[in-house]
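Hey L., structure's done. Input below.
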Amino acid sequence: MADVDGIFSSGARPPPPPWIRLDTGSTTMVPLALGLYALCFGLVSMIIKERLYLSEAFVATMYGVLIGPVCLNLVNPAEWAEIPRFTLEFSRFIIAIQVMAAGVTLPK
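Output:
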């Protein structure tokens, strides 16, 4: 990639824009892992619940063990600096979703 001034002629690439850089810290990995779990479980929940006779709680527990520090070590809460702050914010997020879901299912 050659520029008019020859800045990039040496083969070095410019840094990516800020919206492309990814933060792979724990605070982004946990919502990613939970979102992937919800998406994947939603796609195969009929097979898991009705054909394999496994409960949702068992599958969620096994997923937690799999991504946790015991197996893959993708999510390790012991390494987080601000566990109470993250727990508070994540709890607020989950409560907001639950209140919205309850409001949608109320009769008119």
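The chain is about 55% helix and 0% strand. The chain has a mean pLDDT of 78.

-- N.
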